[in-house]
Amino acid sequence: MTLRQASLGTGRNRTTRTARRSVTVLTALGTLAGVALVGATPAGAARQWTGVAPGVTYRQYDVPAAAGVAHVHLLRADLSDAHVRLGLLRPGAVAARDTVSHMADRQKAVAGVNGDFFNISEAQHPGVAPTGASVGPAIADGRILKGAVPDAQRFGPALPPGTHTTAVLGVGADGRAHLDDLTLTGSVVAAGQRLPLGGLNQYALPENGVGAYTPAWGSASRVRATCGSDTERAAPCSADTYEVTVRHGRVVSASARPGSGAIAAGTTVLVGREAGARRLRALAGGARVSLRYALTSARRAVYRFALGGYPVLSGGQPLPGLDTRASAVRTAVGLADDGRTVYLVALDGAPSYRRGLTIAEVARLLAGLGATEGFSLDGGGSSTLVARPSGAAPVTVRNHPSDGSERPVANGIGVFTR
């Protein structure tokens, strides 16, 4: 199945769930948000499940690991309850960052974790600002926000063999969570020619490609999109670039270098590198341009929510080739009961627990919970789990982020009730 969308004045295919209900939070546990977090949660604390909201529970506990004891913070969301859903926590733009607690409070989530890996630094490209944009595809409320960057341009640990940046965790129209791959397809039609679309709101474009940037991108510079290569993230920025601005279906301006600044409603910016740049140079001012794009699902599913990461567990078994050596603080998701039960896991980053788990150990942890599918998200200083305490509107941070306080991240998974 293909989830399709169009810009330049065309319609959108949205799948939304708008109803909400107020909830009573049952139990208070965890650390305070927004303070310097030191020390460690007491070993063995809160081994039993405690309520966060109807259909949403929390626990924390120790697990033995190769590098030492790790401390697990765990949320369980029951998606068979019609009042419970998952959604994308967003900072307001694709190329932006915010803390998990701020995003959860703003969007009225009862709990959540950090999400996809993201463009966190640009030491390899002096003078180029990191965008903060995530690696993989993203869908919010049925709206396509972005596609996946080329595999070689990603941030994060090495991908397991046979997996790609197109991998997603999503919730489909059936209300269940699934692991899938979402591949961007699309084209730019102009001057009687059809150009393949190589990217949508991405911090990196394939060599010789053309990418589209919509108002969802935000105001960050688009220069980073033309840096790196299909085989090396640190490769130099391209010297052959071109940018065309299209408003209400017509070319209104062009530039030899990608720009920055907010993109107005009804406007799309096309960025090309190498052969893609040469094709865009052929567009004259006032030329008519149309754009179509879609995220095609390997499962032939339609998603109202999806974000990137990489799979670690399939059919209840760890994927072959998972790393067994590098231990770190991690965030991950486990799916059980055919996607009706979702486990959100974030490890504690306090000094006593900071050595964490290997990816292989994460997969075994998820399998031990009863998950049949598992998905790894961004870790290290990004790992954050939040939930509302009893009787409070704001969420609190339940784990100790390893940076000592919350790191602004590109997105997250929110747990919502109504």
Task: Give an overview in words.
This protein is mainly beta and 418 residues long. The strands form four sheets. Strands 1, 7, 8, 9, 10, 11, 17 and 18 form an eight-stranded antiparallel sheet that branches. A hairpin with an 8-residue loop joins strand 24 and strand 25. The chain is globular and about 65 Å long. It starts with a strand and ends with a strand.
Flag low-confidence runs. Answer: 9-45
How would you state the average pLDDT, rounded? 90
**Percent of residues in helical segments?**
under 10%
End-to-end separation in angstroms reads 29 Å
Amount of beta strand: 25-35%
The SSE string, one letter per element, is EEEEEHEEEEEEEEEEEHEEEEEEHEEEE
Shape designation: globular
Q: Report the count of strand segments.
A: 26
Largest sheet: 8 strands, antiparallel
The whole-angstrom Rg is 21 Å
Which structural class fits the helix and strand makeup? mainly beta
DSSP summary: helix tally: 3
In short:
Helices cover 6% and strands 34% of the residues. The protein has helices spanning 100-107, 275-281, 359-368, and strands spanning 2-6, 50-53, 56-63, 70-78, 84-89, 111-114, 138-140, 143-146, 167-172, 177-190, 193-196, 199-200, 210-213, 241-247, 250-255, 267-273, 289-297, 303-308, 310-314, 317-318, 331-336, 341-347, 373-377, 385-387, 396-397, 412-417. The longest helix has 10 residues, at 359-368.
Task: Name the features.
single chain, 418 residues, mainly beta, 8-stranded antiparallel sheet, 3 helices, 6% helix, 34% strand, globular
